[in-house]
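Figure 3 (text version): structure tokens given as input.
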């Protein structure tokens, strides 16, 4: 095993984050190498280090650590253990985005992530065989319409990527989810650092004020619904056309082009076939 540590810095890395990463690598005693991106924008900062890591055939796992993460002690060993025990190929740790309890992972009823932030994510190198290049992209955004028990995902092209921020993690996660190789969710959470005040040059106490956010919301996107003897099917050409029918009726409708509805699934609303182009 060799860990390729991918740090997609856009120009600033918190020193405590680097210290925590080195601590994890030293404690785990695995073979490792850090791949840096300096002062590159999103998504290039992700794609550059991903390609560097994949160019080394001895790298088995890519560990993405964003520059502002709070990395708890033992999380690298813990996440790799979860991957081995459960035969996972991708796992992410949740973390808050703002001071009040929040999260970056949105998961289905079975615990798999529809998508997640990339702050602390481990991906086996074989996963990238499922993906087209560029692995991370910001030219597609997703209008996610959360219904009572499913997500309608409508992708559209971004006309000017210089005027948007992000999307690369949503597209990355949703692509893997729709390819039936979802990112799984670790039982350990991370935190996030935020510079609340920049140090001044006109005093001897010019250190930056940095606050850590560690409280992660555990609210799920969906709660399991009650068991029903009826089977739900939907018309892929009109996702609002949903019917609860008997098994025999469901089979007849499926023969006519309907699809069986799975609780918590992502239903693509993609008249422009963007998914076909990027998948």
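Below: residues designed for each position.
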């Amino acid at each position: 095993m060799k860990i390729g540590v991918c740090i997609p810095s856009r120009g600033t890395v918190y020193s405590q984050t680097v210290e925590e990463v080195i601590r994890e690598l030293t404690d785990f005693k695995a073979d490792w190498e850090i791949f840096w991106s300096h002062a590159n924008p999103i998504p290039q900062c992700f794609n550059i280090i991903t390609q560097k890591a994949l160019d080394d055939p001895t790298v088995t796992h890519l560990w993405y650590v964003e520059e502002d993460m709070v990395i708890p002690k033992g999380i690298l060993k813990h996440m790799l253990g979860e991957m081995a025990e459960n035969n996972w190929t991708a796992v992410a740790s949740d973390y808050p985005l703002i001071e009040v309890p929040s999260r970056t992972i949105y998961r289905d009823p079975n615990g798999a992530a529809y998508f997640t932030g990339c702050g602390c994510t481990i991906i086996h190198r074989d996963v990238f065989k499922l993906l087209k290049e560029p692995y991370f992209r910001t030219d597609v955004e997703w209008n996610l319409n959360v219904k009572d028990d499913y997500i309608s995902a409508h992708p559209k092209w971004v006309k000017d990527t210089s005027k948007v921020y992000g999307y690369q993690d949503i597209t990355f996660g949703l692509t893997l989810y729709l390819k039936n190789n979802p990112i799984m969710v670790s039982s350990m959470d991370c935190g996030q650092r935020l510079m609340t005040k920049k140090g001044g040059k006109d005093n001897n106490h010019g250190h930056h004020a940095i606050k850590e956010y560690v409280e992660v919301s555990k609210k799920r996107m969906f709660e399991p619904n009650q068991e029903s003897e009826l089977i739900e099917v939907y018309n892929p050409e009109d996702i609002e056309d949903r019917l609860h029918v008997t098994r025999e009726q469901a089979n007849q409708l499926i023969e006519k082009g309907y699809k069986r509805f799975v609780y918590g699934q992502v239903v693509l609303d993609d008249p422009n076939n963007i998914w076909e182009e990027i998948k």
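The chain has a mean pLDDT of 91.
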